[in-house]
Records
---
Amino acid sequence: QVQLVQSGAEVRKPGASVKVSCMASGYSFTSYSLNWVRQAPGQGLEWMGLITPSIPATTYAQKFQGRVTVTRDTSTSTVYMELSSLRSEDTAVYFCARKTLVQGNAFDYWGQGTLVTVSS
Amino acid sequence: DIQMTQSPPSLSASVGDRVTITCRASQSISSFLNWYQRRPGKAPKLLIFAASSLQSGVPSRFSGGGSGTDFTLTITSLQPEDFATYYCQQGYNNPPTFGPGTKVDI
């Protein structure tokens, strides 16, 4: 069965960076794009970017351009999201999510989420 | 970016009730509209894709409709496990954007 397993919770100080991993299993890793979506406390869901593992190619939300980097390791079917210059507003749960190949461009499988806390 | 709005922001309902949530896009998105359920502490779960297609494994009491800019999610005969927050999301173009959510509670 399809699974996306993320790394554990992180605490960082303002100005630092964090790198979250997402290991995929149960499907062909290079056939689907993997996306990163976050949810800050009391806020909605916010798309950050994606990687197409086969190429690889990345696309980022304008809001995060220059601060986010998404990479992949095909040998371990793992995608990484690194966010730099952290500020308190980056405190959120970060999810990886697979995008479907069918109409709608939905996210059909999600990781369990990784809480990133930014605090001095 | 395409802006998504939802109404109502929250609603109170009882087990067995029929509930309808509305989602509106700031421009036409054809049928590129998806619905998710999020329970506290859990990842979002895809319920409906392409406006009206039921995701595999999702109970048939969930249904979606609409096209263009106006969409609905209907839950017939609400069950205890359906008390959650529901989000719509457009997949028409990048960046994908989500509605602010509708919280369904008792």
---
Amino acid sequence: EAQVTQNPRYLITVTGKKLTVTCSQNMNHEYMSWYRQDPGLGLRQIYYSMNVEVTDKGDVPEGYKVSRKEKRNFPLILESPSPNQTSLYFCASSLFAGGHEQYFGPGTRLTVT
Amino acid sequence: KQEVTQIPAALSVPEGENLVLNCSFTDSAIYNLQWFRQDPGKGLTSLLLIQSSQREQTSGRLNASLDKSSGRSTLYIAASQPGDSATYLCAVRLKGNYGQNFVFGPGTRLSVLP
């Protein structure tokens, strides 16, 4: 089944403890992206990747890192999480960055205390 | 900068009604527009994708139209059911700024009452 998977689905952590949210797609997509969703602010793009080893900042990249060493995986790294990073995170992928349908993962709900 | 708005913000209707959700965008230089459904605390499910060269797309009881020149799209839901209750999001895929190119609207929260 074609899908985007994220892990973990739920995470509660403390300020400053490094964490990684994994994202994987099995559709051989070149484009992958991370979003965060917050009440009243909607979905905002954090980082995106056009292909392996090609990543760039979205609208709200501060406090996040990403890597794209393999085509299927695009992990989101929070080196020193803070409470303002408490949010619902979505990974997405599409065949290319242009006019192709974007597929979303199930989301990761992160709480930083 | 592209802005996407959705009207109404919330809508409550009795079961069986036909309804229309609206999405507006300010920049017509788009590749496509995609409608999503989101259940509370859950992921986004793609409903319909309309390419910029298309006028409408249909899937079951859903019909989405696109008027690129006026910057508007509508999602029509026929014979609504309680299971249609969710938040509906539209998103445009922009031309130019190639990777950072997907802008979401704030959503319309739909409640269909039995």
